[in-house]
Amino acid sequence: MDKLPVLLIQTVLRLGNLDFIKYILVSDNEIKASNETKEKRLKIPITEAGHLTATGICIVYHLDYKTIDFDEINSPTKGNGQKMVECVLKDFPKDWQAGIFMDWSGGFWNKMKEKYKAVSWLDD
Question: Does the pTM of the predicted model rise above 0.70?
């Protein structure tokens, strides 16, 4: 993996500071963070929408295009989804874009887009 941009390093640090996040996995193209893992040995954070107990987020990033995709997010606890999004979009650079390609949230992402109007959204 090449050197991560400051934006992504700061995102990982902020996610790690959330009291409910216990596991973070950073790969060549994504960041996954959650309070639970799929497997005890591999410690892959659970981020799937609709999971009954896991609170997590998966962000796919494309360094060449300066974009992030909110791939998965789940929070059975009200407010934790917004806290995770804040970790990603706080001080978000003007030359980067964010996208949501599978929105099953029932309005969550519309609220986030309204709150983060300064962010350049890919679908706008």
Answer: yes
